[in-house]
Design goal:
Blueprint lengths: L1 H26 L2 H29 L7 H22 L3 H17 L19 H35 L13 H33 L8 H22 L4 H20 L14
Helix pairs in contact: 1-2, 1-4, 2-3, 3-4, 3-5, 5-6, 5-8, 6-7, 7-8
Length: 275
């Protein structure tokens, strides 16, 4: 099947682009960065073709199953990292982001791409549902970026505190820049999550299933929203050091992972995403 070999080609080329990006990030080799960026752009093109072909075959926007949602997350990660690679000098961050993207793509091999959406609760052609899901996935991508920035901040902070300087540290931005990138990522992700939550609640209300508002998935999403809003408030007050904010942000992202991976099994209307 055309999608099988195309997906395999995406995985192999993605891995090859990571090798070039790693070489560029560690050795500051411009030729390696150009090759890595070129391969990554080709991976993005192939991903776009894959999504378009799947949309044509299944006759709905492919975001409704486990395979489709994870593939969309990787596509978004590649899209944003390409922009970062072209406009910002963040080679090591781009590399780390795409390591995460490649890991998600590899995990997605365990889901079944042949399964299409067939939920009784949701209709595949529902545009409100499509917007709800894409906003949620986009917020997760922004939070993933913020988590990687926070991990980088904690690494840099520990190295500086212990006065352990290495050549690798020169490949990262300053602590202030990393903290600012983290803040910007959360500032983007939080409104997207709020909008996604609101649209989901509107969908529930339109269907007359108000009891679903007490679903564990809805409750956990509220908790995540409050966690990130709290981060923004703490950051705005300026009373909290950067390393504490980084830890708070990582804890909030851990809730995101738990919400996406674990609570789908407990939800009464989100199991469809694990088909």
């Amino acid at each position: 099947m055309i999608t099988t070999w195309l997906y395999d080609a995406i995985v192999y080329l993605y891995a090859l682009s990571l090798l070039f990006y790693f070489s560029a990030a560690v050795g500051r080799r411009r030729s390696a960065k150009r090759m890595g960026a070129g391969l990554l752009a080709f991976v993005w093109l192939m991903q776009t073709v894959y999504l378009g072909y799947r949309m044509y075959v299944l006759q709905y926007v492919p975001v409704l199953t486990l395979f489709e949602s994870l593939f969309l997350v990787v596509w978004l990660l590649v899209s944003v990292s390409l922009v970062m690679s072209w406009w910002l000098r963040l080679d090591m961050i781009v590399f780390l982001v795409n390591v995460a993207g490649f890991a998600i793509l590899a995990v997605n091999l365990f889901s079944d791409p042949a399964i299409s959406a067939g939920s009784k609760q949701w209709e595949a052609q529902d545009h409100l549902l499509f917007i709800h899901i894409t906003l949620a996935m986009s917020s997760y991508v922004a939070f993933l970026f913020s988590a990687i920035f926070s991990l980088t901040y904690l690494y840099m902070h520990r190295q500086l505190k212990e006065k352990t300087w290495s050549k690798l540290m020169t490949r990262f931005p300053s602590l202030d820049a990393i903290e600012d990138y983290t803040y910007r990522s959360v500032l983007i992700g939080t409104p997207l999550l709020i909008l996604s939550l609101v649209l989901g609640m509107v969908k529930i209300g339109l269907q007359g299933n108000n009891h679903l508002l007490l679903d564990p998935k809805v409750f956990s999403t509220f908790v995540i929203m409050l966690a990130y809003v709290s981060y923004l408030v703490q950051r705005a007050t300026g009373n909290y050091p950067g390393f504490k904010l980084a830890r708070w942000n990582l804890a909030a992202f851990a809730l995101v992972v738990l919400n996406y991976v674990g609570l789908n099994f407990m939800s009464r209307f989100h199991q469809w995403i694990w088909m």
